Amino acid sequence: MGLQLRIFRVELVIVALILPLLLTGCGGGGGDGSRGSAGVSNGASGGTGGPEKKTLTVAGLPLADVAALHIAIDRGLFEEQGLTVRVRPVQQSVQALPALANGQVDIIGGANYVTFLQARERGTLATRVLAEAARNAPRLMGVLVLPDSEIRTPEDLRGKRVGVNILNNIQSLSLNSALRERGAGLPAYLQVPFPQMGALLERGQVDAVHAVEPFASAIKRDLNARTVIDGAASPADGLPLSGYVTTQRFTDTYPRTAAAFQRAIAAAQTIADRDRDAVEQVLPGYTKIEPAEAAAIGLPGYPPESSTAELTRLIAMMRDQGLLTKDMDAADLLFEPGR
Predict the structure, then answer these.
(1) Taking the CB of residue 41, how many other CB atoms lie within 10 A of it?
(2) d(CA 52, CA 104)
(3) Please, what sign has the CA dihedral across residues 270, 88, 10, 96?
(4) Contact 157, 143 (CB under 8 A)
(5) Which has the higher per-residue pLDDT, 224 or 2?
(6) Rounded to an integer, what distance in angstroms lies between the CA atom of residue 114 and that of residue 232?
(7) Statement: residue 119 has pLDDT above 50
(8) Within 13 A of 65's CA, how many CA atoms are on the CB side?
(9) In terms of Cα–Cα distance, which of 16, 61, 17, 7 is closest to 197?
(10) Is the predicted pLDDT of residue 281 greater than 70, yes or no?
(11) Which residues are paired to 135 by β-bridges?
């Protein structure tokens, strides 16, 4: 199948999936209802010691970051905690911010840490991290160019047009840090949604793209694109990328619900961390990629526990590049039951 047709189909799927999130509240259908248990009311009348709110709506991205979310649903890990979880797909976690603020979704899965740390600093939304979703790892993302491109080394990226999904975010943050460590000049960034990266690279509207899986594998396959620098190049290796993020209001109102969700995700993250096959099995169900592709792509790290040290490292890197203007205490960002 040609690249243009693949991109068009992906965009149609994304449009069809994101409209319910933008147009409806948290009640009713939509999203990935087949993955949750039907017939459970969305009330806040949990029994003593159980979750106060039994049904949760989670906005999830079509990325490998949230594999644990779908493992937890498929294996009944949420049900074991007295929860029913419904997934509403979104293309970018930032698009779910209004819905999170308005209570249309309870949690954002795969929430980009850079975006949410910036939102917290601006006072846009008091966010809390329930659990880490993904950490940077080799072959998860990388800077890709056409096979005949004059860009051969990281140093060649100086001043070149590089497409990133969101400006001033994790992709430019990690690439800038790697280029600076190597004494290389920085590129000029253009905002290009992941599904459109291959088409714009093919047409020469960008010189390179910083793509994440599964989009990176599709671009390499369809355009014979090559990698100039891996997205996990030092010092961005192991960097926290995303998490399961909610609001301070949610954790204050539903502390037992937040703790129950946290326990289920921790169990699923442990499975994802130890068993690649478990991740490969769920990826085609929500990313729309083929099983053979799921077996070949690079995956992120799935930490079973959140790390204040790693989150502090991310905060320091953001401050160094001007993406945050003041320091943050990582421990204050992480939800801990009973604290």
Answers:
(1) 10
(2) 17
(3) negative
(4) yes
(5) 224
(6) 16
(7) yes
(8) 29
(9) 7
(10) yes
(11) 240, 301
Contact between 125 and 246 under an 8 Å Cβ cutoff? The reply is no
Alpha carbons 94 and 301: distance in angstroms, whole number: 22
3-state secondary structure of 46: coil
Give the angle 310-312-316 at the CA atoms, nearest 5°. Answer: 120
> What size, in residues, is the chain?
339
Q: How far apart are CA 191 and CA 221, in angstroms?
A: 22
- Tell me which H or E stretch contains 28: none
- The C-alpha atoms of residue 170 and residue 193 are separated, in whole angstroms, by 14
Residue 149's closest CA among 194, 100, 206?
206
Distance CA 44, CA 194 (A): 37
- Vertex 101: Cα angle to 100 and 105 (nearest 5): 25
How many Cα neighbours within 13 Å face the side chain of 88?
Answer: 27
Query: Hey, what long-range contacts does 331-338 have (CB within 8 A, 24 or more apart)?
Result: 333/117, 333/120, 333/127, 333/128, 333/129, 334/128, 334/129, 334/306, 334/308, 335/128, 335/129, 335/130, 335/246, 335/251, 335/258, 335/262, 337/255, 337/256, 337/258, 337/259, 337/262, 338/255
Give the residue-averaged pLDDT of 248-277.
96
DSSP 184-206: PPP-EEEE--GGGHHHHHHTTSS
Cβ neighbour number for residue 54 with a 10 Å cutoff: 23
What percent of the chain is modeled with pLDDT above 70? Answer: 86
Q: Is the dihedral of CA 252, 257, 260, 262 positive or negative?
A: negative
CA 107 to chain centre: 12
Q: Is 36 helix (H, G, I), strand (E, B) or coil?
A: coil
